[in-house]
# Entry
Amino acid sequence: MGDHKINVLSEETIGKISAGEVVERPASVVKELVENAIDAGSDSIEIEIHAAGRSLIRVADNGEGMTPEDAKIACMRHTTSKIRDINDLEHVYTLGFRGEALSSIAAVSQMDLTSCAGSAETGVYMYLESGNVQKIRPVGRSRGTTVEVRNLFYNVPARRKFLKKESTELAEIVNVVGRFIVSCPDIEIKLVHGEKRILHAPKGMDLHGRIRLVLGGDISDQMIDVSANSETYKLSGYISRPSSTRKDKRAQLFFVNGRFIRSRVLGDAVYDAYRSMLERGRYPFVALFLKMSSSEIDVNVHPTKLQVKFGDEKTVRNVITAAIKDRFEQIKREEVVVQSAELRVPGTGIGAPESPVSPGSSEVQTEFSYEVPEGIFQGLRAEKGSSRGEKIFPEDEDIFQMAGCYIVQVKPGGITVTDQHAAHERVLYEFFSKAAETGPVETQNLLFPVRLDLSADESVIMEKTREYFGTLGFQVEPFGTRTYVVQAVPAVIKDRDVQTVIHDILTDLSSYDLSKIAIVEELIKVSSCRAAVKAGDALSKEEMISLLDQLQRCALPFTCPHGRPTMSEITVDELEKRFRRK
Ligand code: ADP
Ligand code: MG
# Structure
């Protein structure tokens, strides 16, 4: 150290640090390697993963390959065949151009690279550790490239330690590969994890088939095509009907010039088009492809190229909003009913016990009748052995629903206001918790089992959690690749839209990094929240009474499982103070 405190970092340290920008996790390795395979003009790409990418990521392609000389250069920092200088960025149509991926991946792993530039050429095999070439020799290979990345972050313990659970990392890889499957309909893409084939998009599979493969049938079967052409922009793809929505934006895929990006501009554009038709906190799903001259966008604003900057944001936004709105207008004219979200009364329903929830049609739920006296908490009543005869609410109490969300009780001593969602969530939470402890809950067999066509990442979560779903009374059976059938649900939620509830539960679960112990607890929380009546659900008087009854029987009735209050009271005393009578 001596008399200076500023160190010049070694090449190796510099390499590892800058690798961190490109290689955050196994999925980023997959993304970069597949991008290279696509840029190399491959029409078949095979991805093999072990231990969710911790132990091995292998990407093999049949693209143009590299000569031995090029292969050596390609693994050095800042080397690319795709641009020569910054001006080339104006007309870059390849996915890569920064020349950082191979060297970055090599810097933080043990990497084998085999490549051959054509039948007349000799292939090359290289082995690198921490970015240094350890072995290089000629080898036979058909045209194409295979990169094998072993023990990712073996030399960056801090990074390795922060890898998430296997299911989380795998779900992210599945997402990444799914996006390529959708954006490259002419390329055969296969993803294998261990012994298991997770995704396979053969050559002839068209865009709709690929969206179906990746997002699942529940989504894709609801989609409508959309397109728009102007001199500068070409838009194509699929959008969902306003009545089929998700609770997050994960099923919003945007591709600009073939590149998957995240974009506020595009997200807002879509939202504008649906604006008046969506329930709060719900989002449509879309797969949209925008093509434009590459001089109209800056693709070099993000290390992993996940974002772009549009030259003319406003026009881009308008193109998309207008295209979607026009399409809805057209559909309306064609008398296909686009059911507005406001019209849909979500299933607080009290249908007959065997009322079916048919797959894919959330609208079915509007047909319940409010007259049936036994309400949504029927199952609970039976479970807890309570009966309406107990008269928890005396006759001289008035009770009504306010703002579609609050249950207001006027009592001699004051006014009590209960948040219907928070209250029901608490009730279900205690119900499910008890079920998880003491065994089987009362379940309701569905007369028409509900079919679930899950997206690729949803099915990873489902595989992990299916047995725990069982604990809580959801009987979910596998039914072919990524298709499941719900045979039975907990009786307490039998009248809710089963498909939406399960999709929402899976979405919530996927944002957690789940250990086995935590799964049940999360599933209980999430199921309670997703299955509870929502703000905006109309409740009959009997249902309100039943809910308050159940809430009173809870161990911790005053807060929902997230800690928000379930009820609030204004006493006559308080009113008197407000009116300065006291
Ligand atoms: P970039 O893709 O930004 O150019 P990379 O580090 O990903 O940078 O790759 C460096 C170079 O290596 C590429 O420009 C390309 O010439 C070559 N290369 C990498 N992967 C492949 C592949 N699968 N097939 C053919 N060439 C490849
Ligand atoms: Mg690249």
User: Anything to note?
Assistant: The first helix runs from residue 11 to 22. The radius of gyration is 28 Å. DSSP finds 17 helices and 22 strands in the chain. Residues 422 and 560 are 5 Å apart (CA to CA).
